[in-house]
Write a structure and sequence with these properties.
Layout (H helix, E strand, L loop, with lengths): L7 E5 L5 H8 L3 E7 L2 H10 L4 E4 L7 H7 L9 E4 L20 H13 L3 E6 L9 H9 L5 E3 L3 E4 L10 E9 L22 H5 L18 E2 L6 H7 L9 H10 L1 E2 L9 H8 L51 H8 L11 H9 L4 H16 L1
Parallel strand pairs: 1-2, 1-4, 2-3, 4-5
Antiparallel strand pairs: 5-8, 6-8, 7-8, 9-10
Helix pairs in contact: 1-12, 3-4, 4-5, 10-11
Length: 375
């Protein structure tokens, strides 16, 4: 890996691209990304225009399909990353043992065995470690056991990697026995030098007021002040030449214009109810939590697609304004760059942001792996 300037990586269940962005910022070339959701694929293509994309169901994919998509041309893949659907494992949901999506966790490991990358990283919610999923985990690990070393699963919080959210994820990390890599759990201990970021820091420089009538994609573009917080430097300072939509990058660089400030029209009754919710508490009707300025954001939820009831994501209430947050505010909490694009609607934007691994957490994990592989 140390002899290749841009080791290639493939992102499965890529979503809008939180893991992909972390990989690129960690020094990898994103060769290909796969997801089934057409809105996620469309957004991913805008943000990663030089990667190959496929809107495919992982159930029906084989290693050769992905190898051809990524144009590996006989070269060995450096890394396979991905976050299989977590809804069946989430303690926020019903934790259904027989949820059909749970088997996608197994298929991620099947594809590891077929693609034979130097290393892999799989992430999911902590609920996947529940005893009821032990058989699924054992079946999955069995298909890579002969060729790969694996660490015991470990949990990390995005807040320890510079994101303004307490979102925790479990990681499954393995490396090929012939890769010459040596890893231990201690290797992934968060650095104490990482500055903790609060909601206040994450929102610094954003518009002070959001007009509920900002309902169209174009009206959601607004100027931001990039001088108010070190956090904006952290998320925006590195813009790799192979990442980003040209129009979004130009508007950001030339005019400090950022998308996603979509307003929400609340009734007077809802506004009055939100006004009674104290920071850190939850609205009794909507179950939306109110953010606290000097704390982390609770884990953002994604809601569900049409085939799962079209349930709206629980959008947090702004710390001091009686409204729910905008997609761009949610993106800031997750640590996405201001130039990063999401779907033009609130519904799909929140699904894409809520389903994503925070890019700063992904970058932290993959930088550590890059360092281990090149040492």
């Amino acid at each position: 890996m140390s002899r290749r300037a841009k080791p290639k990586i493939i992102d499965l269940f890529a979503g809008v691209g939180g893991f992909s962005l972390g990989a690129v910022r960690a020094g990898f070339e994103l060769a290909a990304a796969v997801d089934l959701d057409r809105h996620a694929v469309d957004a991913h293509q805008k943000n990663f225009p030089h990667a190959a994309h496929a809107r495919r169901d992982i159930f029906g994919l084989c290693g050769d399909d992905i190898r051809d998509l990524a144009k590996l041309n006989g070269h060995r893949l450096t890394g396979l990353i991905g976050g299989p659907p977590c809804q069946g494992f989430s303690t926020m949901g019903r934790m259904r043992k027989n949820d059909a999506r749970n088997k996608l966790f197994f298929h991620f490991f099947r594809l590891i065995s077929e693609l034979n990358p130097l290393f892999f990283v799989c992430e999911n919610v902590p609920g996947i470690l529940d005893e009821k999923y032990e058989t699924l985990r054992e079946e999955s690990f069995k298909v890579v056991k002969r060729k790969y070393h694996m660490l015991d699963p470990f949990e990390l919080s995005a807040g320890d990697f510079g994101a303004a959210t307490e979102r925790s994820r479990v990681f499954f990390v393995g490396w090929a026995k012939d890769a010459g890599i040596g890893l231990s759990l201690g290797y992934f201990t968060p650095s104490p030098r990482v500055k903790k970021v609060t909601v206040r820091s994450a929102f610094a420089g954003l518009p002070k007021r959001i007009d509920p009538n900002w309902q169209t994609e174009e009206s959601g573009w607004r100027r931001v002040d990039l001088t108010e917080s070190d956090f904006t430097d952290t998320i925006n300072k590195l813009v790799p030449g192979v990442v980003g939509d040209k129009t979004a990058l130009d508007r950001f660089a030339q005019h400090s214009e950022v998308s996603g400030f979509l307003g929400t029209i609340h009734t007077r009754k809802v506004i009055a109810r939100f006004a009674e919710v104290e920071p850190g508490k939850m609205d009794s009707v909507s179950k939306f939590p109110r953010l606290k300025w000097d704390a982390l954001c609770p884990t953002l939820r994604a809601g569900t697609a049409k085939d799962r009831g079209s349930y709206q994501a629980a959008r947090p209430i702004h710390p001091s304004q009686d409204r729910v947050i905008t997609p761009r505010e949610a993106a800031r909490l997750q640590g996405f760059p201001d130039w990063f694009l999401f779907h033009q609607t609130k519904w799909h934007s929140f699904r894409q942001i809520g389903n994503s691994i925070p890019p700063l957490l992904a970058e932290g994990i993959l930088r550590l792996l890059a360092g281990a592989a090149s040492s």
